[in-house]
Specification:
Structural class: mainly alpha
Radius of gyration: 35 Å
InterPro entries: ARM-like, ARM-type_fold, Armadillo, RAP1GDS1
CATH architecture of one domain: Alpha Horseshoe
Shape: elongated
CATH class of one domain: Mainly Alpha
GO molecular function: guanyl-nucleotide exchange factor activity
Largest sheet: none
Number of strands: 0
Main location: cytoplasm
Keywords: Cytoplasm, Endoplasmic reticulum, Mitochondrion
Strand content: under 5%
Protein name: UNC-45/Cro1/She4 central domain-containing protein
Distance between the termini: 117 Å
Oligomer: single chain
Length: about 575
């Protein structure tokens, strides 16, 4: 019998129709053997020959059309099949499914996928099962959904987190890809191991040196995919050591991976680094994260150290994460006045080589958090934030409009209720320049040239804040300072003669009613001094502004002049 079986495979023709006929006869023999002699060695030989034939691409479609593939799928679904035959069935199914959606559909229709998934518990055929599942599922969503429903996630996670990890290690690339296929399926009870992200990050972190880039990136990327889903975040954070784990694994992704100038691996590494940053931003916004990271904890020390690292992803993530942790005045004051965390941030802004928009946005956003408490404002100003080479330099980045807006927004926060910072922004940049220019001039100029509405509004608000502080009675600002003298106010308005041009934007816009009210209040405050009143009166020379104010005060449109 074995000779005739071999002869049949030797006689497979080049013509696809003839191939299908020959393989159909093989299928008939296989069914007969299975029915009459299921333990026959001839069946093992036939299965081996079929598996070999399936390695040839031209044979794969005929294997499906002949019914031979479905036959071996049915054998695999039978209980008590001997390991040697199971291995050959897996070879046939895996090889026949390579790049063949029609055969994948046949495998799916046969109902054997749950049986294949269950074979992950059988160490003797593990080396077959995992590649076979990959061949069936790659680029084929119906099979991916089916293996998810068959419970592949808990099976694989248990495999790589238990004593059989050594068996699975050579197949780790396939394991990670299979987990990635099912990572975005709708989570269902008992179909996802709750420790999936923790287990995978642990595998990545604990790799021996030198780190295998492919395995590390596969493990980390799948873990981060799961952590991008809210339902896995709480379980992860409830696991002891989770914060330390993700910080150290992210650090390894930036410092310990050598991509050997491989463009594909380098691109994947950048993608994983970006995913780490996004995941840390999400996790650090969770109450469990802050509760497990006191401000004097090793995790916060690690994050603070990242601010000065040369790796941009770590620096950005540190700013986003610490910004989420520091959500109270008490924490912000501690970080500035006890940890001096603002100093490396200001150093980073001072360095013109730091041109990455994402990094600058993260730094400025964190500093905005730190600038909210009144007690921090003068400290941040005195540390140099308002020096010409720091925030004013970023005001000039017209090509990075979001970063420019962030810098203006931070400036406004520093000015609110802080005479010391108002003094800094109004002081001449260079007293020898005639006429002397202040940093406030640069802010007014930005308001005039910007075509971005958010920047226009924020610069106008910052300018208005300066005037509000200058005209606030002593004791009404958090940091008391002597009232400006009439002479100093006169000099201020003389030096900044176009200041009300910026302020008018807040009244003439209609999108933000509260900003209109804010500006009207400051105009009224200014008008209480002769110098401020003169500036307001100059602004009133514009008929459109007067008309808008009259409409706001009376609640009615200004009547148009009668036509003679």
């Amino acid at each position: 019998m074995s000779g005739s079986i071999s002869q049949l495979f030797d006689d497979i023709a080049d013509d696809e129709v003839q191939r299908t006929k020959v393989l159909g006869r093989v299928a008939d023999i296989a069914r007969s053997l299975w029915k009459t002699e299921p333990g026959s060695p001839d069946l093992d030989i036939l299965a081996q020959k079929s598996g070999d034939a399936a390695r040839v691409e031209a044979n794969r479609e005929p294997l499906g059309e002949s019914g031979l593939l479905e036959f071996f799928c049915s054998v695999l679904s039978t209980q008590g099949v001997r390991p040697t035959l199971i291995a050959q069935c897996l070879r046939i199914i895996g090889n026949s499914s390579a790049d063949q959606d029609e055969n994948r559909a046949r495998v799916l229709a046969s109902g054997c996928l749950p049986s294949i998934v269950s074979l992950l518990n059988n160490s003797s055929v593990l080396a077959y099962v995992i590649p076979v599942l990959f061949n069936i599922c790659v680029d084929y969503e119906p099979a991916q959904k089916a293996i998810y429903q068959a419970g592949i996630n808990p099976e694989l996670v248990s495999l790589v987190s238990g004593p059989r990890l050594e068996n699975a290690a050579p197949l780790m690339t396939y394991v990670c890809k299979l987990l990635s296929f099912v990572a975005k399926q709708e989570p269902e009870a008992n179909l996802v191991h709750p420790a999936t992200p923790f287990v995978l990050l642990s595998l990545a972190r604990n790799q021996p040196s030198p780190i295998d880039a492919e395995d590390f990136l596969g493990q980390a990327s799948v873990a981060l995919t799961y952590l991008s889903q809210e339902q896995f975040q709480q379980t992860f954070l409830e696991t002891q050591g989770s914060v330390d784990l993700i910080l150290h694994t992210f650090s390894a992704a930036c410092e310990d991976i050598d991509v050997f100038q491989d463009p594909d691996t380098e691109a994947q590494l950048k993608k994983v680094q970006a995913a780490f940053t996004a995941t840390l931003a999400d996790l650090s916004a969770h109450p469990l994260f802050a509760s497990s990271c006191s401000l004097d904890s090793p995790a916060v020390q690690t994050l603070q150290g990242w601010i000065s690292t040369p790796h941009i992803p770590l620096r950005s993530a540190a700013c986003l994460t610490l910004g989420n942790i520091a959500r109270s005045d008490e924490k912000c004051i501690y970080l500035v006045q006890q940890r001096a965390i603002h100093k490396p941030l200001i150093e980073a802004l001072t360095d013109p080589s730091n041109a990455d928009a994402g990094l600058l946005h993260s730094i400025l956003s964190f500093l905005k958090n730190l600038a909210i408490p009144a007690a921090n404002k003068p400290v941040l100003g005195a540390a140099g934030l308002l020096e010409a080479d720091v925030l004013p330099r970023i005001w000039d980045l017209d090509t990075q409009t979001q970063v420019q807006f962030d810098a203006v927004s931070l400036t406004r926060l520093l000015l609110v209720g802080c005479p010391a910072n108002v003094h800094l922004i109004c002081a001449p940049i260079d007293a020898a320049t005639a006429p002397p220019r202040s940093k406030l001039h640069a802010l007014i100029d930005l308001n005039a040239r910007s075509d971005q509405e958010p920047t226009q509004m924020e610069t106008a608000r910052a300018v208005t804040t300066v005037c509000r502080v200058l005209h606030s009675p002593q004791g009404q600002t958090p940091t008391d300072a002597p009232l400006p003298t009439p002479e100093s106010l006169e000099a201020f308005y003389s030096a900044h003669s176009t200041i009300t041009d910026a302020m008018q934007r807040l009244i003439q816009q209609t999108k933000f009613p509260t900003l209109r009210s804010e500006q009207l209040f400051v105009f009224a405050l200014m008008a209480r001094t002769p110098e401020g009143a003169a500036a307001v009166a100059q602004a009133m020379h514009q008929a459109e502004l007067v008309s808008t104010i009259v409409s706001l005060v009376t609640g009615s449109p200004t009547p148009s002049a009668a036509t003679p």
